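Let's sit down with a protein and look at its sequence and fold side by side. We need material for that, and I hope you will provide a protein of your own picking. Once you have written the record down, we can walk along the chain together.

***
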Amino acid sequence: MKLGIVGLPNVGKSTLFNAITNAGAESANYPFCTIEPNVGMVAVPDKRLQVLTELHKSAKTVPAFIEFVDIAGLVRGASRGEGLGNKFLSHIREVDAIVHVVRCFDSDTIVHVDGSVDPLRDMETINLELILADLETLDKRYEKASRLVLKGDKSSAAEAKLLGALKAHLEEGLPARSYEFTEDDQEIMRDINLLTIKPVVYAANMDEAAFSEFTEGHPNAYYQQLTERAAEEGAAVLPICAQLEQDIAELDAEEKQMFLAEIGLEESGLDRLIAVSYDLLGLISFLTTGSDETRAWTIKKGTKAPQAAGKIHTDFERGFIRAETVAYDDLMSCGSMVKAKEKGLVRSEGKEYVVQDGDIILFRFNV
């Protein structure tokens, strides 16, 4: 999974990126500090892995990973190439979901590119640029489909109708992700890579004082405005303090837990961001475990056993026979795989089995 971190200049993008990846991306108080995107790989936190590693005395533990991409700050006019706009848009096309950092704090020392703090204006600036870029993409496809219809190509009629309706939707200032697509529509859209169709998490970046008030149940007006607007387009909102996350990232595991407890949090912003992103993208993890290794594998919800096996190796999918499966909670209640088998909790599942989050699977195959 690849997440692109976007936002206007000086909203805390690179600070957040540094915090969640420890990658040391340059962060400074001027626009376009980030030109080429910085990339960092982050392990997906999963407490089940350590438990299984200890249970089976695995030689190594391999978590799932998320790739974070810190993309150049966007300014008004990016869809026309202003301020590195073309690079910005091309980098967004390559990600699975967008983490849109929105500034929700005042500061006399950190300059806002528009001279004042206004989360709704900031959201609209970026959304408008993405919509304009998508309209350009749709115009070309719509014209082509319409020409084919005029030439008697009936197979292009459905595409032309959908693209026309979608163009009207975008022209109202609405992102493609808020359009209600039918299954047939989704098939047509499969090879049309729109920017505004990508899932979005709005990261409401607060300073430490505002975030402290939020954790005590007193969100500031900026955050409230952001959540109301995000709800209208079906996007998620993550309250976060990028500077605090950077401080947390410098602590060891024990110090981190103590610090989080002191400020009344159970999880870091990174952990919460990953959980929200998994939910937005409809992702789950299944597990494999043994003396060699314990590993997490990321798949889409609804994935059947053979396709899940293919995540490990194409031969597993091609020669799939069955999946010997036990739910993580069932294994924990029994204490060992032997006892789980004795209780009939280890199941033999076939090709139509839909893998569930936390399934521990041993694939049987023959090639």
About this structure: The two ends are 29 Å apart (CA to CA). The mean pLDDT is 87. Residues 119-150 form the longest helix (32 residues). Residues 130 and 195 are 6 Å apart (CA to CA).
